[in-house]
């Protein structure tokens, strides 16, 4: 398949012909479509299939047949590895095209898509492809007359239900580990961002992934997502999205076949600046990235800044100055760091949070404006509110938009208490020069990823997921992710 550069994708978007559809073996064509608009200027860029429960049933029938007949799972691991590597190589050839699809579909800055999202997506596929023939079972220390193998078997038919904020990357986080374990995978991308998933699966088929081992059902969460969650013949669902919808998947499981559920959900992550921290350019860049990267539509967004009272004034001055590097505008332009909110409804939700925060008495330090001459897209300036207290809405709720809450503290205990005062526990970062304090704080913070003197979600080698209501049942990334996608069997052999 010919590669397309970003200009070709942007041109197709202008003509309204971009399409993402069902990829289901032998299924009925989809009779209805969802109009797909870009948040950049709210124009129509194409359409996606609006699948029904019946399409999910058809995908599961093929996925189960594939699993039972072993076309994918019983291939020699070296053979599966070659196919996964060929797929990754094809995606590398199409990297600019995939980046442009995420940019136009989600309004993400093209520079981010090219330099971060797609390289991270490719790393994920490369890493798991390489792992295929390096993961194997154990022998237990039993009596001499017994050999007991503990083996890992693929779990069966996997549903991967994805969010819209990192379309290509979240696809990779689920699909790569699920496939390498030998499962049959059914992907349900977010209805707002299905384009890159569709293209990546087309490339998977070109590389040799059997079509019934990797299928896609496009459409609405309450139809397709729910049908996946409730299906009696899906063995597990790996979900990334809001805590609210994550809860539904636990209910779907309870109401159907007790399928395994792994949830990666929301967050309200703290960033802490202690009194001994060095306020330099590196710290300012890290704090602003944690707060505003990806328009703050980021589960691990560092949306609560806890600062020692002695450091607040200087820190705020530097943060406000640093915002001048965060150019907002049309995300198709290379020098833009912030694009629009994903859609009108989400934009309006974030604007409501701006109003609530003002009415609750926080002090606006920077930003707070909307639209600012960007045409009809859904743009909100990066915004900082000071004097946010723990009882305010902004302190408690995940906004998923560019509003940073600043709260002061006077002791380490107070900082830790404030940091943990959340129903979420996905990530945290803090700044100190004191090793003893660093070790103490790192061990007391309730979060799946804690970064010291910087902001990071880790990389593909490290597990990612949340404490408390940020997650459930497992981790993405690293070898830990493979646990989601397999069952453990004991084979007890008596001589
Ligand atoms: P969402 O929960 O609205 O949707 C996620 C997926 O669930 C979509 O595919 C959607 O179609 C589907 N869905 C929606 N309603 C459904 C229903 N009733 N039944 C079944 N499926 C349904 O989330 P979103 O708005 O796409 O993404 C934003 C959220 O994702 C934020 O809360 C963010 O924190 C979270 N997130 C978490 C991580 C992580 O790794 N922890 C990563 C990225 C995003």
Question: How would you explain this protein's 3D organization?
Answer:
With 495 residues, the chain is α/β, with parallel strands linked by helices. It has 2 domains: 6-265, Aldehyde Dehydrogenase, Chain A, domain 1 (3-Layer(aba) Sandwich), CATH 3.40.605.10; 270-452, Aldehyde Dehydrogenase, Chain A, domain 2, CATH 3.40.309. The protein is built from 15 helices and 21 strands. A 7-stranded mixed beta sheet has the order 13-14-15-12-11-17-18, with helices on both faces. A hairpin with a 6-residue loop joins β4 (138-139) and β5. α2 (53-69) packs parallel to α8 and α4 packs across α5. The chain starts with 5 loop residues before the first helix and ends with a strand. Keywords: Oxidoreductase. This is Aldehyde dehydrogenase. GO terms for molecular function: aldehyde dehydrogenase (NAD+) activity.
Q: What would you say the CATH architecture of the largest domain is?
A: 3-Layer(aba) Sandwich
Fold-level CATH name of the largest domain: Aldehyde Dehydrogenase, Chain A, domain 1
Task: State the share of residues found in helices, binned by percent.
Answer: 25-40%
Give start-end ranges of low-pLDDT stretches: none
Q: Which word captures the global form?
A: globular
Rg from alpha-carbon coordinates: 23 Å
Total count of strands: 21
State the distance separating the first and last CA atoms. 56 Å
Domain unit count:
2
Oligomeric state of the chains in view = single chain
Protein name: Aldehyde dehydrogenase
Keywords: Oxidoreductase
Family: Belongs to the aldehyde dehydrogenase family.
EC number: 1.2.1.3
